[in-house]
Amino acid sequence: MSRRSGILEFAVLGLLRESPMHGYELRKRLNTSLGVFRAFSYGTLYPCLKTLVANGWLIEEPSNTPDEAHATPLTGRRAKIVYRLTAEGKERFEELLSQTGPDAYEDEHFAARFAFFGQTSRDVRMRVLEGRRSRLEERLEKMRASLARTRERLDDYTLELQRHGMESVEREVRWLNELIESERTGRDQRQSPAAGAAEQDTPTDTGGLPRHRDSTRPDPSDDTTK
């Protein structure tokens, strides 16, 4: 399975864990909720769905919408198929959700993983965030070294483009530092005597998320569109 296919499988299972959907609704959610899938088509989605059905992770059911049920015999249109997660599919998603290997730190996969942090345990969130930060710090170091070697040979526009790329990585590192610190602070508070008896982490625990601003994107003060 390609990395792209693996990300799509993860995202589809995650969205269907929330509720059953038909293909159009699922594609819309992928487009609007997960930016990494903005350019993908039905020709990519439906083969993925068929594979998940064949694996026993999804089942296909006819839509129970009354209007559609009555319209189909009269118009000859095919009834919409609703995709529902099976018990095996939930287990598969939980397995994917717990993985913290190198793929989880890459650009596209990290975006998908972060979108489902609300269903992810705190320990796994921490490992993914720290892995992503390490990956970006390595990337930043290489960018700085490359810029130092080639600065004198670059024209002003190319130099500015490289600086812009470095600043984008630096912003994300700062954002990750904030998220990691918030996760640690939330965990410490839960484990302190003053917080009462320690509670078991659940996938819906988002107590470590910063609340003072939209934490799903870098600092708005860095937005150059203003």
Essential attributes:
2 domains; Arc Repressor Mutant, subunit A; 3-stranded antiparallel beta sheet; 226 residues; mainly alpha
Give a quick precis of the structure.
By secondary structure, this protein is mainly alpha-helical. Helices cover 60% and strands 5% of the residues.
How would you describe the shape?
elongated
Q: How many DSSP-defined strands?
A: 3
**CATH class group of the largest domain:** Mainly Alpha
Give the integer mean of the pLDDT values. 80
Order of helices and strands: HEHHEHEHHHH
CATH homologous superfamily heading of the largest domain: Winged helix-like DNA-binding domain superfamily/Winged helix DNA-binding domain
CA-atom Rg in angstroms: 22 Å
CATH overall fold name of the largest domain? Arc Repressor Mutant, subunit A
What count of structural domains?
A: 2
What portion of residues belong to β-strands?
5-15%
Task: Explain this structure.
The protein has 226 residues and is mainly α. The chain folds into two domains: 3-97, Arc Repressor Mutant, subunit A (Orthogonal Bundle); 121-193 and 203-222. Helices cover 60% and strands 5% of the residues. It has eight helices and three strands. It has helices at residues 3-18, 23-33, 42-54, 66-75, 87-97, 107-115, 122-150, 156-191; strands at 21-22, 58-62, 81-85. A three-stranded antiparallel beta sheet has the order 1-3-2. α7 packs antiparallel against α8 (156-191). The chain is elongated, with a radius of gyration of 22 Å. It starts with a helix and ends in a 35-residue tail after the last helix.
